[in-house]
Amino acid sequence: MKGALGFIGVFLSFLFACVNSSDNCRLICDYCDSYGQPTMDCLSHLLSDYCLLKFKNAMASHNSTNWCIWGNVSGLYSSLSNCTEELSDCLLIPWPNPLVEQTFVDIHTSFFKDCPTEELSDPPPLIVFVLVITPICLIPVMVSIVVLKTKNGDGSS
């Protein structure tokens, strides 16, 4: 029986192995070891209880109208990305992974859904007007040319 327990201990230490012996990784791995769940479940809890909590608190300290200004949130976003990468690295989980990707989809849905993007924004009204009016004006001109050519009996061209 003692041999089986030793094997389980070795197996669990493999599940929660750390990539290095840094203090942060040791704390993360000890948490997951005491948590007793598979590594992805532990990562999920760490992401929500640690990385996302820090990100949400930092975003709450900014006015929501400033969330769409990249200069105001780039540091917070980078910190969140670094946090997810560090947790994944410590738990020997490839990064990015589906859990991390879903985390970023969720924060984009929560915080950045109303932010305009440069690529998808409408052009200025004057440009829209010119683009709409040009074909509208060309149609009568083209019809007039066709009618004049046909009236003069010059059907060949």
Automatic annotation (TrEMBL):
Gene3D superfamilies: Receptor activity modifying family. Belongs to the RAMP family. GO terms for molecular function: coreceptor activity. Residues 1-21 form the signal peptide. This is Uncharacterized protein. GO terms for biological process: angiogenesis; calcium ion transport; cellular response to hormone stimulus; G protein-coupled receptor signaling pathway; intracellular protein transport; protein localization to plasma membrane; receptor internalization; regulation of G protein-coupled receptor signaling pathway. It is a single-pass type I membrane protein. GO terms for cellular component: cell surface; plasma membrane; receptor complex. The chain crosses the membrane at residues 126-148. Pfam families: RAMP.
